[in-house]
Amino acid sequence: MIEASPIEGFFHRDKEKIYLGTKVNTIIRGSMKRYLDRLGFLEINPVIISPISDPLNHPVDDPTLSYYGYRYRLTKSMIFHKQLALVHFDKIYSFSPNIRLEPLERRGTGRHLAEFTQLDLEVKGKGREFVMKIAEGMIDDAIENVLNALDRGSLNPGLRRYKRPFRKVRYLDAVEEYGKNFETKMSQEAEEPFWIIDIPLMEREFYDREKDDEEGVLMDMDLIYPLGYGEAISGGEREYKYERILQRIAKKGQRKEDYALLLEAARLGIPPSAGFGIGIERFVRFILGAERISDVVLFPKEIGKFVL
Ligand code: ASP
Ligand code: MG
């Protein structure tokens, strides 16, 4: 198969769509930064390569690179660096580029790219409720700024400022009512964003904290966009105690050697925290009501395609 040159594809981009995507990107990044700065957060620079990264809950290729004989991974999320940053600071965020070499099955979802940016934040000594409120306020502020800056006609017709707090649905209740594929169905039905909370342990990564009063259920959450746009946020309270992290790594069938540095830090004392990450490109797509993320991103790393 002869693929079109990535350069040719680039010169044929839909100017109007990439302009709006880039404009919304500019507005929401500024808005979210100002929102968090006002709350006293510190912005930390993104980490691009490191010996440890997010294991994720689904298989993605995990290439490493060797540098002076040391092994580094590409950042899949800054989860562990967020936890470590709190050894020194109280609340931090980063606009963090993530590389997730997703399998081909995720090609048609319209909301996966192999490279994306998430605004990843973490707060020391606070719980899930606290960071959910921050998420709701930050999203509302960003939407308000977009509505003030752009013509309604260029935006998602369903976009508006939503009533807060957003609705919360327990994961198992969602499964009972809508079945395993609840996220897609509920997102399509919804007209406002909503939270999925209390996700079962084996459905998520080892770093989210198990509930004190409910075994096998986590103190975590996802935010889901309405109108079929799917997942916006993942986050939760974190596991920070050495023994518990070790147990959770074992339960997930991961190798503790891969997380030796995290375990060493946990021995020295990682602070309790909660946080989340919100995908920037997905937020842009939702605001514009675009069919695919790749329509509104200037250099989209589309899965399985040779692109710039
Ligand atoms: N950054 C997310 C978190 O804070 C995890 C993810 O990237 O999915 O939980
Ligand atoms: Mg997630």
Q: How does this model look, in words?
A:
This protein is of the alpha+beta class and 308 residues long. The chain has a single domain (6-296), classed as Bira Bifunctional Protein, Domain 2 (BirA Bifunctional Protein, domain 2), CATH 3.30.930. Helices cover 33% and strands 20% of the residues. The protein is built from nine helices and eleven strands. The longest helix has 24 residues, at 15-38. The chain is globular. Bound molecules: aspartic acid and magnesium ion. The site of aspartic acid has 11 residues, from strand 6, strand 10 and strand 11.
Average pLDDT, rounded to a whole number, is 96
Unreliable runs: none
Proportion of residues in extended strands = 15-25%
How many β strands by DSSP? 11
Which structural traits does this protein have?
308 residues; alpha+beta; BirA Bifunctional Protein, domain 2; globular; binds aspartic acid; binds magnesium ion
Short overview:
The chain is about 35% helix and about 20% strand.
What is the element layout, followed by pairings?
Blueprint (H helix, E strand, L loop, with lengths): L5 H6 L3 H24 L3 E2 L5 E2 L13 E4 L2 E5 L4 H7 L5 E9 L15 E10 L3 H22 L17 E4 H8 L3 H8 L4 E4 L22 E6 L4 E8 L4 H10 L8 H9 L4 E7 H9 L20
Parallel strand pairs: 1-5, 7-8
Antiparallel strand pairs: 2-4, 3-4, 5-6, 6-11, 8-9, 9-10, 10-11
Helix pairs in contact: 2-4, 2-9, 5-6
The protein binds aspartic acid and magnesium ion.
Aspartic acid (ASP) binds next to β6, β10 and β11.
